[in-house]
Q: What sequence folds into this?
């Protein structure tokens, strides 16, 4: 039976990651206060508890990547206070990095090595003894369902297999925190569900997950808590369900008119919902009863090309908080 690698017990405080007034700036200012300094993260507070899946969401340029790089101890903090395992990254970077795993957005696998060799070389980077690394490789290949591909070249793997291998590689040191940047980008639905299952198993074993994703269904499936970032600050925090209940209605009615007609139709339906969002290709009517709203639209003689009633999602929270979709 496949099982996740067991994470050893730790005496660290329950808050695995704690940030207070965390800031990240790039560039320098001149003597007269002029320069090209840009503040990517502008004083955020974050607490990530042991054994939870914590998500950072936000449009491109929101400050997510800068925050994640500080947590990974590869980018110095510009201001505020950051503690990982209760330790300061500025003075305990190597110790912290030895206890975390990082799964980058791009699969940076060595194509000249086979699957087994990729894991072996990475394990040796951590200074793990050869016998220990070999044992962990067998365990991890079983965990990510790649045992039969151990001697296969990386180029011969499917996209989903490469992603699972990257996750296995990030687990070679039995990390207590696993950081995932867009873990399933570009994968088909079946491959995404396999990875979701593996990440869920890791969380059950006590691994703390920290992730970014542009997939709203992924955030709702994986994350226990989320922060929504925009322009370097946190604009909302809570569980996926809490955020949806706080910032959206129960249902959303989507109506599509012809090209260029959606904006013109908005004033004619604005009183039929709590809020109307105008997108280039559709109108979103936020309401507690989507079917009733659609009947009202048709009753006014309007004839949309397509209609849809759905439950509210985190994408709707984004539109409310940032005025942009995640892909912007």
A:
């Amino acid at each position: 039976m496949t099982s996740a690698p067991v994470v050893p017990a730790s005496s660290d405080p329950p808050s695995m990651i704690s940030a207070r007034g965390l800031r990240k700036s790039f560039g320098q200012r001149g003597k007269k206060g002029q320069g090209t300094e840009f503040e990517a993260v502008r004083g955020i507070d974050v607490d990530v508890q042991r054994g939870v899946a914590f998500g950072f969401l936000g449009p491109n340029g929101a400050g997510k990547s800068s925050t994640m790089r500080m947590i990974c101890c590869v980018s110095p903090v510009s201001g505020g206070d950051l503690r990982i395992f209760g330790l300061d990254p500025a003075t305990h970077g190597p110790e912290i990095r030895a206890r975390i795993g990082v799964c980058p957005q791009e699969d940076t696998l060595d194509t000249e090595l086979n699957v087994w060799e990729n894991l072996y070389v990475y394990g040796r980077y951590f200074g793990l003894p050869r016998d220990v690394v070999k044992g962990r490789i067998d365990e991890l290949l079983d965990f990510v369902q790649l045992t039969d591909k151990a001697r296969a070249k990386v180029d011969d793997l499917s996209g989903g297999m490469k992603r699972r291998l990257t996750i296995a590689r990030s687990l070679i040191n039995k990390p207590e925190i696993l950081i995932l940047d867009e873990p399933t980008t570009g994968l088909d639905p079946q491959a995404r569900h396999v990875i979701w299952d593996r990440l869920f198993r890791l969380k059950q074993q006590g691994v703390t997950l920290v992730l970014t994703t542009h997939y709203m269904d992924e955030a709702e499936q994986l994350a226990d808590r989320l922060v929504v970032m925009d322009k370097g600050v946190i604009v909302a925090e809570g569980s996926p369900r809490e955020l949806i209940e706080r910032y959206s209605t129960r249902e959303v009615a989507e109506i599509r008119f012809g090209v260029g007609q959606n904006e013109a139709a908005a004033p004619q339906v604005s009183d039929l919902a709590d809020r109307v969002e105008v997108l280039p290709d559709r109108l979103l009517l936020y309401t507690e009863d989507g079917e009733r709203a659609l009947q009202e639209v048709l009753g006014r003689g309007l004839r949309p090309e397509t209609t849809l009633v759905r439950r509210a999602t985190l994408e709707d929270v984004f539109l409310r908080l940032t005025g942009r979709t995640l892909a912007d």
About this structure: The longest strand covers residues 15-26. The first helix runs from residue 64 to 71. Residues 141 and 147 are 5 Å apart (CA to CA).
